[in-house]
Specification:
This protein has helices at about 1-20, 45-60, 70-80, 90-95, 125-140, 145-155, 200-210, 225-230; strands spanning about 35-40, 65-70, 85-90, 105, 115-120, 175-180, 185, 190, 215-220, 235-245, 255-260, 265, 270-275. By secondary structure, the chain is an alpha/beta fold. It folds into 2 domains: about 20-105, D-Maltodextrin-Binding Protein, domain 2, CATH 3.40.190; about 115-265, D-Maltodextrin-Binding Protein, domain 2, CATH 3.40.190. α5 crosses α7 (about 200-210).
Amino acid sequence: MKNKVSLFLIFLLVLGLTSCGQKSAKIETLSDLQGKVIGNISSGVSDSGTIAMLSVLIGGEPAEVISYNRGIDVLAALKSGKIDGYPSHQFAADYLLKRDSQVVAIPVLDVPIEGHAIMAVRTEDFKLKTMLDSAIIILRDNGTISALEQEWIMNLPAENEPTFNEIPVIEGAPSYYVGVAGDLPPLDYVASDGFPAGFNVALLSEIGKILNINFKFVSLETQARFTALASKKIDVIFCHFQSTNTEYFNELKNEGWVATQPYFVYKGGSFIVNK
Protein backbone atom coordinates (compact mmCIF):
# COMPACT_ATOMS: atom_id res chain seq x y z
CA MET A 1 0.00 0.00 0.00
CA LYS A 2 2.81 2.37 0.92
CA ASN A 3 4.49 1.71 -2.44
CA LYS A 4 1.27 2.56 -4.28
CA VAL A 5 0.89 5.80 -2.33
CA SER A 6 4.52 6.71 -3.00
CA LEU A 7 4.14 6.04 -6.72
CA PHE A 8 0.98 8.16 -6.80
CA LEU A 9 2.72 11.07 -5.05
CA ILE A 10 5.64 10.85 -7.46
CA PHE A 11 3.16 10.91 -10.36
CA LEU A 12 1.51 14.05 -8.98
CA LEU A 13 4.90 15.70 -8.47
CA VAL A 14 6.01 14.96 -12.03
CA LEU A 15 2.67 16.14 -13.39
CA GLY A 16 2.98 19.38 -11.42
CA LEU A 17 6.52 20.03 -12.62
CA THR A 18 5.48 19.33 -16.20
CA SER A 19 2.54 21.72 -15.96
CA CYS A 20 4.71 24.46 -14.47
CA GLY A 21 7.19 24.08 -17.27
CA GLN A 22 4.59 24.50 -19.99
CA LYS A 23 4.23 27.93 -21.58
CA SER A 24 1.30 29.35 -23.47
CA ALA A 25 1.66 29.30 -27.23
CA LYS A 26 3.89 32.06 -28.47
CA ILE A 27 2.11 34.91 -30.25
CA GLU A 28 3.82 35.34 -33.62
CA THR A 29 1.10 36.58 -35.96
CA LEU A 30 -1.99 38.74 -35.61
CA SER A 31 -4.20 35.71 -36.17
CA ASP A 32 -2.62 34.14 -33.07
CA LEU A 33 -4.41 36.82 -31.06
CA GLN A 34 -7.82 35.56 -32.14
CA GLY A 35 -9.56 34.03 -29.15
CA LYS A 36 -6.99 35.59 -26.80
CA VAL A 37 -7.24 38.35 -24.18
CA ILE A 38 -6.47 41.79 -25.59
CA GLY A 39 -5.63 44.83 -23.48
CA ASN A 40 -6.70 48.34 -24.36
CA ILE A 41 -6.42 51.88 -23.00
CA SER A 42 -9.84 53.26 -22.10
CA SER A 43 -10.52 56.03 -24.59
CA GLY A 44 -14.25 56.59 -24.29
CA VAL A 45 -15.09 54.35 -27.23
CA SER A 46 -17.81 51.81 -26.42
CA ASP A 47 -16.95 48.19 -25.72
CA SER A 48 -18.74 47.09 -28.89
CA GLY A 49 -16.81 49.64 -30.96
CA THR A 50 -13.49 48.55 -29.44
CA ILE A 51 -14.19 44.86 -30.08
CA ALA A 52 -15.23 45.60 -33.66
CA MET A 53 -12.02 47.54 -34.30
CA LEU A 54 -9.76 44.90 -32.74
CA SER A 55 -11.54 42.11 -34.62
CA VAL A 56 -10.81 43.79 -37.94
CA LEU A 57 -7.15 44.27 -37.05
CA ILE A 58 -6.51 40.67 -35.96
CA GLY A 59 -8.91 39.02 -38.39
CA GLY A 60 -11.25 37.58 -35.77
CA GLU A 61 -12.75 38.24 -32.36
CA PRO A 62 -10.67 38.21 -29.18
CA ALA A 63 -11.87 36.09 -26.27
CA GLU A 64 -11.96 39.16 -24.06
CA VAL A 65 -10.96 42.81 -24.05
CA ILE A 66 -9.72 44.31 -20.78
CA SER A 67 -9.53 48.10 -20.61
CA TYR A 68 -7.02 49.98 -18.48
CA ASN A 69 -6.85 53.62 -17.47
CA ARG A 70 -3.16 54.15 -18.27
CA GLY A 71 -0.72 52.91 -20.87
CA ILE A 72 1.74 51.81 -18.19
CA ASP A 73 -0.95 49.54 -16.73
CA VAL A 74 -1.51 47.82 -20.07
CA LEU A 75 2.19 47.05 -20.41
CA ALA A 76 2.32 45.72 -16.85
CA ALA A 77 -0.69 43.49 -17.56
CA LEU A 78 1.06 42.07 -20.62
CA LYS A 79 4.24 41.24 -18.73
CA SER A 80 2.32 39.61 -15.88
CA GLY A 81 0.38 37.41 -18.31
CA LYS A 82 -3.03 38.97 -17.67
CA ILE A 83 -3.36 39.84 -21.36
CA ASP A 84 -1.84 38.38 -24.52
CA GLY A 85 -1.25 41.62 -26.41
CA TYR A 86 -2.40 45.18 -26.97
CA PRO A 87 -2.61 47.59 -29.93
CA SER A 88 -0.21 50.49 -30.36
CA HIS A 89 0.41 53.23 -32.87
CA GLN A 90 3.63 52.48 -34.71
CA PHE A 91 5.54 55.53 -33.46
CA ALA A 92 4.73 54.54 -29.86
CA ALA A 93 5.69 50.93 -30.56
CA ASP A 94 9.04 52.05 -31.99
CA TYR A 95 9.68 54.11 -28.87
CA LEU A 96 8.90 51.16 -26.58
CA LEU A 97 10.91 48.56 -28.49
CA LYS A 98 14.07 50.66 -28.22
CA ARG A 99 13.73 50.60 -24.44
CA ASP A 100 12.23 47.21 -23.59
CA SER A 101 13.81 43.97 -24.77
CA GLN A 102 11.06 41.80 -23.28
CA VAL A 103 8.42 42.68 -25.87
CA VAL A 104 8.06 42.63 -29.64
CA ALA A 105 5.66 44.28 -32.08
CA ILE A 106 3.60 42.49 -34.71
CA PRO A 107 2.77 45.06 -37.41
CA VAL A 108 -0.71 45.49 -38.83
CA LEU A 109 -0.17 45.18 -42.58
CA ASP A 110 -3.56 44.39 -44.11
CA VAL A 111 -5.46 47.30 -42.58
CA PRO A 112 -4.18 50.84 -43.25
CA ILE A 113 -3.82 52.85 -40.03
CA GLU A 114 -3.36 56.55 -40.56
CA GLY A 115 -4.58 59.89 -39.35
CA HIS A 116 -3.45 62.97 -37.51
CA ALA A 117 -3.14 64.41 -34.00
CA ILE A 118 -5.10 67.52 -33.07
CA MET A 119 -5.88 69.57 -30.00
CA ALA A 120 -9.48 69.90 -28.88
CA VAL A 121 -11.17 72.93 -27.31
CA ARG A 122 -14.75 73.66 -26.28
CA THR A 123 -17.02 74.77 -29.10
CA GLU A 124 -17.66 78.13 -27.46
CA ASP A 125 -13.92 78.77 -27.29
CA PHE A 126 -13.71 79.28 -31.03
CA LYS A 127 -11.41 82.27 -30.55
CA LEU A 128 -8.91 80.02 -28.77
CA LYS A 129 -9.17 77.49 -31.58
CA THR A 130 -8.45 80.21 -34.13
CA MET A 131 -5.42 81.35 -32.16
CA LEU A 132 -4.06 77.81 -31.85
CA ASP A 133 -4.68 77.19 -35.55
CA SER A 134 -2.73 80.27 -36.55
CA ALA A 135 0.26 79.28 -34.40
CA ILE A 136 0.24 75.67 -35.66
CA ILE A 137 0.21 76.89 -39.26
CA ILE A 138 3.14 79.23 -38.61
CA LEU A 139 5.17 76.50 -36.89
CA ARG A 140 4.34 74.00 -39.60
CA ASP A 141 5.25 76.37 -42.43
CA ASN A 142 8.53 77.55 -40.90
CA GLY A 143 9.71 73.99 -40.20
CA THR A 144 9.60 74.19 -36.41
CA ILE A 145 7.14 71.31 -35.97
CA SER A 146 9.20 69.11 -38.27
CA ALA A 147 12.34 69.92 -36.27
CA LEU A 148 10.57 69.09 -33.00
CA GLU A 149 9.41 65.77 -34.44
CA GLN A 150 12.95 64.88 -35.40
CA GLU A 151 14.31 65.81 -31.98
CA TRP A 152 11.64 64.36 -29.69
CA ILE A 153 10.00 61.58 -31.72
CA MET A 154 12.07 60.25 -34.60
CA ASN A 155 15.63 60.58 -33.29
CA LEU A 156 15.30 60.47 -29.52
CA PRO A 157 18.18 58.21 -28.36
CA ALA A 158 17.13 54.90 -26.81
CA GLU A 159 19.14 55.66 -23.67
CA ASN A 160 17.25 58.93 -23.14
CA GLU A 161 13.80 59.73 -21.87
CA PRO A 162 12.09 62.99 -22.83
CA THR A 163 13.22 65.63 -20.38
CA PHE A 164 11.11 68.25 -18.66
CA ASN A 165 11.01 71.50 -20.57
CA GLU A 166 9.84 74.28 -18.30
CA ILE A 167 7.80 76.86 -20.14
CA PRO A 168 8.75 80.38 -19.06
CA VAL A 169 5.82 82.23 -17.51
CA ILE A 170 4.85 85.37 -19.42
CA GLU A 171 3.92 88.02 -16.86
CA GLY A 172 0.43 89.44 -17.33
CA ALA A 173 -0.46 86.97 -20.10
CA PRO A 174 -3.61 84.83 -19.91
CA SER A 175 -3.23 81.18 -18.87
CA TYR A 176 -4.89 78.11 -20.35
CA TYR A 177 -5.03 74.65 -18.79
CA VAL A 178 -3.94 71.77 -21.01
CA GLY A 179 -4.94 68.18 -20.27
CA VAL A 180 -2.29 65.56 -21.03
CA ALA A 181 -2.52 61.81 -20.40
CA GLY A 182 1.00 60.75 -21.34
CA ASP A 183 -0.21 57.49 -22.90
CA LEU A 184 1.36 58.08 -26.31
CA PRO A 185 5.08 58.56 -25.73
CA PRO A 186 7.08 60.22 -27.06
CA LEU A 187 4.37 62.37 -28.70
CA ASP A 188 2.44 62.81 -25.47
CA TYR A 189 4.64 62.01 -22.48
CA VAL A 190 4.45 62.42 -18.73
CA ALA A 191 7.67 61.67 -16.85
CA SER A 192 7.90 59.52 -13.71
CA ASP A 193 7.84 62.67 -11.58
CA GLY A 194 4.40 63.54 -12.97
CA PHE A 195 5.53 66.40 -15.20
CA PRO A 196 4.86 66.42 -18.96
CA ALA A 197 8.04 66.39 -21.01
CA GLY A 198 9.39 66.23 -24.53
CA PHE A 199 7.41 66.99 -27.66
CA ASN A 200 4.17 68.11 -26.01
CA VAL A 201 5.91 70.69 -23.83
CA ALA A 202 8.26 71.81 -26.59
CA LEU A 203 5.40 72.37 -29.05
CA LEU A 204 3.20 74.24 -26.59
CA SER A 205 6.17 76.35 -25.54
CA GLU A 206 6.59 77.53 -29.14
CA ILE A 207 2.85 78.17 -29.46
CA GLY A 208 2.86 80.18 -26.23
CA LYS A 209 5.66 82.41 -27.52
CA ILE A 210 3.75 83.19 -30.71
CA LEU A 211 0.41 83.84 -29.01
CA ASN A 212 1.81 85.48 -25.85
CA ILE A 213 -0.12 83.12 -23.58
CA ASN A 214 0.76 80.72 -20.75
CA PHE A 215 -0.02 77.01 -20.64
CA LYS A 216 -0.46 75.07 -17.41
CA PHE A 217 -0.49 71.27 -17.58
CA VAL A 218 -3.03 69.00 -15.94
CA SER A 219 -2.31 65.26 -15.91
CA LEU A 220 -5.41 63.11 -16.37
CA GLU A 221 -6.46 59.72 -17.68
CA THR A 222 -7.26 59.33 -21.36
CA GLN A 223 -10.92 58.47 -20.82
CA ALA A 224 -11.41 61.57 -18.64
CA ARG A 225 -10.22 64.09 -21.23
CA PHE A 226 -13.52 65.17 -22.74
CA THR A 227 -15.33 65.18 -19.39
CA ALA A 228 -12.63 67.46 -17.99
CA LEU A 229 -12.91 69.71 -21.04
CA ALA A 230 -16.71 69.96 -20.81
CA SER A 231 -16.59 70.70 -17.07
CA LYS A 232 -13.96 73.42 -17.70
CA LYS A 233 -11.30 71.76 -15.58
CA ILE A 234 -9.11 72.12 -18.64
CA ASP A 235 -9.28 74.38 -21.69
CA VAL A 236 -7.35 72.26 -24.18
CA ILE A 237 -6.88 68.55 -24.82
CA PHE A 238 -3.35 68.29 -26.12
CA CYS A 239 -3.49 65.00 -27.96
CA HIS A 240 -6.47 63.45 -29.72
CA PHE A 241 -6.17 61.25 -32.78
CA GLN A 242 -8.52 61.51 -35.72
CA SER A 243 -8.37 58.60 -38.14
CA THR A 244 -8.69 59.36 -41.83
CA ASN A 245 -9.73 55.85 -42.86
CA THR A 246 -11.90 54.32 -40.10
CA GLU A 247 -15.08 55.24 -38.28
CA TYR A 248 -14.40 53.47 -34.99
CA PHE A 249 -13.69 56.69 -33.11
CA ASN A 250 -16.54 58.68 -34.62
CA GLU A 251 -18.62 58.16 -31.49
CA LEU A 252 -16.20 60.49 -29.68
CA LYS A 253 -17.29 63.29 -31.98
CA ASN A 254 -19.89 65.61 -30.53
CA GLU A 255 -21.04 69.19 -30.61
CA GLY A 256 -19.25 70.11 -27.40
CA TRP A 257 -15.75 70.44 -28.84
CA VAL A 258 -13.90 71.39 -32.00
CA ALA A 259 -10.56 70.27 -33.38
CA THR A 260 -7.58 72.44 -34.16
CA GLN A 261 -5.37 72.17 -37.18
CA PRO A 262 -3.43 68.87 -37.15
CA TYR A 263 0.13 69.08 -35.86
CA PHE A 264 1.27 65.46 -36.32
CA VAL A 265 0.55 62.82 -38.96
CA TYR A 266 0.74 59.15 -37.98
CA LYS A 267 0.86 55.98 -40.06
CA GLY A 268 0.97 52.34 -39.11
CA GLY A 269 0.20 50.29 -36.04
CA SER A 270 1.25 47.12 -34.26
CA PHE A 271 0.23 44.76 -31.48
CA ILE A 272 2.69 44.56 -28.60
CA VAL A 273 3.23 41.00 -27.30
CA ASN A 274 5.72 39.26 -25.04
CA LYS A 275 8.89 38.03 -26.72
